[in-house]
Design goal:
By secondary structure, the protein is α/β, with parallel strands linked by helices. It has a single domain, classed as Nucleoside phosphorylase domain (Rossmann fold, 3-Layer(aba) Sandwich), CATH 3.40.50.1580. Helices cover about 30% and strands about 25% of the residues. It has a 5-stranded mixed beta barrel. The protein is globular, with a radius of gyration of 17 Å.
Length: about 270
């Protein structure tokens, strides 16, 4: 599915007709991590289903709302809930909010997710500052005709995750005593979790954690020249004696990690 540029423009015009403020930073909140909005002053909020051409979030715990907020004296736009390839969306639909955020005016993007911890140094509810990724998704959001309004045909991904933002986050985490690692995130399609053999394979190819999102959004962000930072909360353990996971245990780990993730995002916003 190739989405015409005019669709993005219509979504943006609809939002601007209801909120004229231009955000500086975009934030995508992943599974179980939506409470960050409560730390902000909400200026406007919109249900995804009301925005022209916007997909509708179907994953559990993804609220499906777009917020324009004031936080740390900065204007931000927050996607409370994301889209996944496993929901049946095309990759262009998965990254639709990121492209709309860019047209609204953002220059940097902060992304959160939960993941399975493959690195044996990781514990439940630890944070992982993503330094690089391995893309194992079956499709790419840039497939098809290039939308030159967003970027060039062949964007470079050498430093997909902004080094300066990573250093600032790592320094803040050390100062506040927050357990945060720096690691490689493998992105798979899901929605099933991996087999023990697949976890071993992912470890061998260099992954420290694994999830079902983020990489498509990062690809789209870098295509548009956005500074990008991503953080993952370890929601289940995928090494040693692996135990079956369930959504309630994943959400519990996310809730434990959320205050630390929010603090780190707030610090980065204050520096923007």
């Amino acid at each position: 599915m190739n989405i015409p540029f005019e669709y993005y423009r219509e979504s943006v015009n609809w939002i601007r007709a209801r909120c004229e403020l231009s955000p500086q930073t975009g934030i995508i909140l992943g599974t179980g991590l939506g409470e960050l909005v409560n730390e902000t002053k909400v200026i406007s909020s919109f249900d995804y289903r009301d925005i022209p051409h916007f997909p509708i979030a179907t994953a559990e715990s993804h609220a499906g709302k777009l917020y324009v907020v004031e936080w740390k004296n900065k204007i931000c736009v927050i996607a409370q809930g994301r889209f996944h390839f496993y929901e049946g969306y095309s990759m262009q639909q998965v990254v639709y909010p990121v492209r709309v955020m860019k047209l609204l005016g953002i220059s940097s993007l902060l992304i959160s997710n939960i993941s399975g911890g493959i690195n044996p140094d990781y514990q439940l509810a630890d944070l992982v500052c993503i330094e690089d990724h391995i893309n194992l998704q079956p499709a790419n959001p840039l497939t098809g005709p290039n939308l030159s309004e967003f970027g060039s045909r062949w964007p470079d991904m050498f430093q997909a995750y902004d080094p300066e933002m990573r250093r600032a986050a790592e320094s803040f985490a050390r100062e506040k005593g927050i357990r945060m690692h720096s690691g490689v995130y493998a992105s798979v399609s899901g929605p099933n979790l991996e087999t023990p053999a697949e976890y071993r394979y992912l470890a061998r190819i260099g992954a420290d954690c694994v999830g079902m999102s983020t990489v498509p959004e990062v690809i789209a962000a870098r295509h548009m020249g956005l500074r990008t930072f991503a953080i993952s909360a370890v929601s289940d353990i995928c090494y040693g004696e692996i135990k079956p996971a369930n959504i309630s245990s994943l959400l519990k780990a996310a809730a434990e990690a959320q205050p630390h993730m929010t603090a780190i995002f707030g610090h980065l916003i204050s520096l923007a």
